[in-house]
Amino acid sequence: MKVIDMHCDTISELFALKQKGTPEALRSNGRHMDLLRMKESRYLVQNFALFVMLEKAEDPWEHVCSLYRHYREELEKNSDILAPVLRYSDIASNEAAGKLSSMLTVEEGGVCGGEIGKLCRLYDMGVRMLTLTWNFDNEIGHPNYSRLLNTQLRVAMEEWKHTGPDSPDRERKRERAQLAYSCYSHMPNLTEGLTERGREFVTKMEELGMIPDVSHLSDAGFYDVLETTKKPFVASHSNAREVCHSVRNMKDDMIRRLADRGGVMGLNFCADFLEEKLLGEKNPGSIAAVVRHAKHIVSVGGIEVLGLGSDFDGIETNEELPGAQSMGALWEALSRAGFSEDQLDKIFYKNVLRVYEDTIK
Fold this sequence. Notes:
The protein is α/β, with parallel strands linked by helices. About 45% of the residues lie in helices and about 10% in strands. Strands 1, 2, 3, 4, 5 and 6 form a 6-stranded parallel β-sheet that branches. A 3-stranded parallel β-sheet has the order 7-8-9. Strand 4 (about 100-105), helix 5 (about 115-125) and strand 5 (about 125-130) form a beta-alpha-beta unit.
């Protein structure tokens, strides 16, 4: 077994802990991911995302640069077991040297402020994948989540939260919050996609050798990326909408189109993107739900379209997949569900490795 995981937020999580005065190390920590557990689980490549929340960052560009400096510090501290991927051949070289490979990504294209020059600087820093949007509009595109519906959901949730358990209005307010949540999570953005500057970004990314990542991007934006690009692209951490009807997941037509392009989507271990529960009902996450998504995605797009995108350290802990140490359990569950060893190798690393060979210079 080898593992390539297209998305985790560990660097951003460790940086936040450092800022709070409670630092933990990449080599060994109490989060979802650390290098020692990754090595034990036979990771080949881990994509480390620099995540910036636009609405909370005073200067998004400076924040991503601060995250980058922290990433470089961790690379230097752990150079005995971790090495960066700047070109495709680095993966094999790192493996031959007995080292894990680290691919740097950025989750939030808005850190560039629409400046192509900053996109090129990210490439020079070693970034080889860019999640075009997170959950906010930016200069290059629009997410699937609606800002208006998000505001309505927050109001409804606060009203329900602050209603006493014996209040006659509590059930009505719970139903209102449930409706607001359903609208927010079930209504994709079908009209707002890439901006004109966004199309320029995606074109430049292909020229540089940087992979566009459409996780979080609107449905309209997915088709814009499909139209604008020629090479494979990815949805680094998105599941199947037919199995769990969240707009963060991919509808079947998108899965087929991504497969036709030679791209890959990564199974996300976030419980709310695996299986829906009613508001207030615990959603611990399960391996069985991941298996359901895997089987559906393969039935729609074929075995070549599926990979891993755990979203570790960016999600609440999935109780049955609590961290990097869980990859063996996932392999066994998928094997019991009927996936062959060859198919599992494709899901766990070969499909993503193929995309990297086709895209990264």
